[in-house]
Amino acid sequence: MKIGILGAGQLARMIALAGFPLGLDFIFLDPSVDACANRLGEHLHGDYSDPVLLAQLVECADVVTYEFENVPAQVVDYLAEHTKVYPPAKALEVAQDRWVEKNFFQELDIPTAKFALVSSLEDLAFAMPTLGYPAILKSRTQGYDGKGQVVLKSEADLKSAWEIVQGAPSIVEAFVPFSREVSIIAARSVSGSVVFYPLSENQHQGGILRVAECRANDPMQAQAEDYLTRLLNALDYVGVLALELFEVEGQLIANEFAPRVHNSGHWTIEGAETSQFENHLRAILDLPLGSTAAIGNAAMVNFIGGLPEAKEVLAIANAHLHLYGKSPRKGRKVAHVTVRASNSESYRNSLEKLERLATQVDDS
Ligand code: ATP
Ligand code: MG
Ligand code: MG
């Protein structure tokens, strides 16, 4: 079996690494000749919407999937007409546009922050008295790692914020005074079986995920699963889906979802019986899904903009290094490290060491 993946970054790479023991082969399509997954399979270079490349991909692959959600709609339509492609087009359409996504949550009775559509500076000024300060202006499309977002502290920020997003179609949403951020990841197979991972508790720095920690037996697990079940059913979803949530006063409210494997689930490689990457493949191939049970304590720390020395990471007990094979650039995720240990004290100890190391190495 050969799996086609749109995108050849670290997510595609980790999907391939999970697929080799299952006897799977891979073909990647990515504009970059030195994308980090390329060496793990065949690769096609060029624009995602190049009809010749897409035809080649369809020809070579038994099933096609994505590692990112900003696949142009016409590409998904083409793929869906010619081959099996998961997750479904509808999930991408919704996740690509924050305005559509937030309305979709509301239709499913999944609570969100208050939000409004912003197509002009006048719209923004009109929305603010109802939303109140602080608030966040977010471009509707293309944003990730907090890019295309500006915090609004008062009326004086509106004009400059609108300039920062360069007048792009946007939404403005109320700032959520959350006690913590969590995410939940599920896999749903072609025949409709579903498994949920334990919640991840996530810390961000400057809009970029820094640490994700497995929270087995979290009191908010049931509510998170309930929201995610509504999404999976409404989208007739196949593959892995991640839902990002804020906890406020003992309630969860939705931030956004990602129709793909997710950075907050990287700890599942060592910290769960079956990783999110393997379960994504099992789901799209309609194989039995694997157990998502946590194995002891587990957390993941991202390295952003600077590469750690392997020997420094590996000197930390219970640390598992994942270098992506990317050259460091400011703000770019280049590696992550998982800490997993059954003993809570050695787990805490190693995680603290790792967090210190990551702070030293970042953007070095
Ligand atoms: P990702 O890399 O997860 O795709 P993104 O660029 O799509 O990120 P968001 O997830 O919307 O952006 O926001 C990034 C982070 O900014 C959130 O994880 C959260 O820490 C903070 N944030 C976003 N929206 C709000 C909000 N309404 N209230 C408070 N904090 C927020
Ligand atoms: Mg996002
Ligand atoms: Mg996010």
UniProtKB/TrEMBL annotation:
GO terms for biological process: 'de novo' IMP biosynthetic process. Pathway: Purine metabolism; IMP biosynthesis via de novo pathway; 5-amino-1-(5-phospho-D-ribosyl)imidazole-4-carboxylate from 5-amino-1-(5-phospho-D-ribosyl)imidazole (N5-CAIR route): step 1/2. Pfam families: ATP-grasp, PurK_C, RS_preATP-grasp-like. Keywords: ATP-binding, Ligase, Nucleotide-binding, Purine biosynthesis. Its EC number is 6.3.4.18. GO terms for molecular function: 5-(carboxyamino)imidazole ribonucleotide synthase activity; ATP binding; metal ion binding; phosphoribosylaminoimidazole carboxylase activity. GO terms for cellular component: cytosol. ATP binds at residues 98, 138, 143-149, 173-176, 181, 204, 255-256. It catalyses: 5-amino-1-(5-phospho-beta-D-ribosyl)imidazole + hydrogencarbonate + ATP = 5-carboxyamino-1-(5-phospho-D-ribosyl)imidazole + ADP + phosphate + 2 H(+). Residues 102-285 form the ATP-grasp domain. PROSITE patterns: ATP_GRASP. Homodimer. HAMAP family: PurK. Belongs to the PurK/PurT family. Catalyzes the ATP-dependent conversion of 5-aminoimidazole ribonucleotide (AIR) and HCO(3)(-) to N5-carboxyaminoimidazole ribonucleotide (N5-CAIR). Catalyzes the ATP-dependent conversion of 5-aminoimidazole ribonucleotide (AIR) and HCO(3)- to N5-carboxyaminoimidazole ribonucleotide (N5-CAIR). PANTHER family: PHOSPHORIBOSYLAMINOIMIDAZOLE CARBOXYLASE (PTHR11609:SF5), PURINE BIOSYNTHESIS PROTEIN 6/7, PUR6/7 (PTHR11609). This is N5-carboxyaminoimidazole ribonucleotide synthase. It comes from Methyloglobulus morosus KoM1.
